[in-house]
Amino acid sequence: MTEATPPTTTAPAPGYFARHIFFCTNERANGENCCAQHAAQAAFDHCKKQVKQAGLAGPGKVRVNKAGCLDRCAAGPVAVVYPDGVWYSYVDNADIEEIVESHLKNGQVVERLLIPPELGR
Prior knowledge:
Blueprint: E1 19-24, H1 40-53, E2 62-67, E3 78-82, E4 86-89, H2 93-105
Parallel strand pairs: 1-2
Antiparallel strand pairs: 1-3, 3-4
Helix pairs in contact: 1-2
């Protein structure tokens, strides 16, 4: 009688990044309100810099991405953190720094910057 070989179990591979933060940088040609009109590119650049300085960038950590329209224009400018599904609106660099420190570094949602769920276009 031969002994059965136990099945090998492998833990699922973790996602390449623990979190993504997407910044809408959409610009509308027809002049309608859009995130690009609210310094979204500058906020993206600042976030990317803050994430790198905090040592949060790279595989297994945080990725800062640009996005087209995220369809929450009425709340703009808009950023969303995944996989958490947390939607933020921000005003200035201090808001971005708070999102990086609180949410991206420590996993704590910045309640005061949350977009109400009903606020869309």
